[in-house]
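W.,

You were right to be curious about this one. When I first looked at the sequence I had no strong expectations either way, so I just let the prediction run and decided to look at it fresh. Below is the sequence, 424 residues in total, followed by the output.
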Amino acid sequence: MNELAWLLCDTDMKRGYALAENAYSLANSLSADDPPYQIGMAYCLRTQGYLNMRFGNYAQGLAQLLRALPLCEALQLHDGLPDVYDGITATYFVIGSYPEALANAYKQLETAQRINDQKRIINAYNNVAAVQFETGDYAQAIETMLLNLRLARTIKYTRVECITHINLSEMYLSVGDHEIAIEHGLHGLQMSQEFDYTLFEIYALQNLGQCYLKVADAPKALPYLEKAMELSRSLELKVMEAMVLLALGEAHRSLQQFEQAQTHVHRAITLAQSIENNKEVYQGHLLLSELYEQTGDFAQALAHFKQHQAAKEVVFNEKADERLKVLQVAHDTATAKQEAEIAHLRTVELQREITKHSQAEQQLQRQLAYMRALSEFKQALLASAERETDGQRILTEAVRHLLMPTQARMIAIHQNLDDPELGP
């Protein structure tokens, strides 16, 4: 069930999450000492955390991933570790914590290389490139992506080959190389349709629409954007649908079709508000303000610009709040881990002290036993000497008292013990 849930992460996220929840319930119903329980819990948390990240539930997803991490390490789930780091990297990336994202991307790469898993190595390189690009290292990011593309083709990893084309399309679009951006976008679209990667198909369609808008070819952009909107609706991806509606508004604006543009943007704002996605809300109000200004309705233009400013402030506060929540989860997890390590060290130290005292007590008991045995030996020797004339037998009887503390089974009396020169 866990394996199927993970396989559905790109094609049917809702079903994948439902399966992961069921698997978690099953694993949770077993004995905590049962190894399958621990293994099942680790994989469930990995999948749930990763999908919550994809759904935008970043704090919840990170909490699950950080719970999965020590389980995967302790149980040596070598295929699970890179996936967990993948989700952690993506979470930090989304909230803009790029140093943490890059550090975890390299951990993802290291754990994937350790087991020589080419697919997971390629996934890690994708994340490294994404962080490089966002931090302004465009040339290195594109070089990393092109390396990844070659690796994916070599091992016939169509999923990553497809998404790498789409990522390269976005990167080339951002640096102004529109022709290559369109070329990679078309490759990504073709592969997403061929292999039924519907989610990637939406990204490819939306990106191609943006590419054609950048080169002022709105008629070519429209079919891609309309198809992207259709697929977004079919998968109920409201965030994506709102983004595409805004792009459609831009396309109709380029064609001087202001009424249609306003209709699309109003729908985008309404949809974004229904899911509390304020980023598209503030972008939509800004676009409406510009559209009304172009048509001479300055009152509406001013009203929407004010709404844009208000929504933008909400987005800023939301981002800060989301970042705070995610970092709080990371802090709490690190603190709990540190406290557990300190408690473990204290337990180990206490155990050492207990062992040390126990050993000292045992040594003292042995010394007392020897002293008692020697005393009894002396008494037996003196008492026997008054009655017996056979020295050998006297010594043998007396020395028996030394058997108990030494735990010896027999004692040999040597002749020199009675040697007059040595003494008894």
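Here's what jumped out at me. Residues 237-318 form a domain with the Serine Threonine Protein Phosphatase 5, Tetratricopeptide repeat fold (CATH 1.25.40.10). And, maybe more interesting for your project: The CA atoms of residues 170 and 418 lie 102 Å apart.

Coffee later to discuss?

I.
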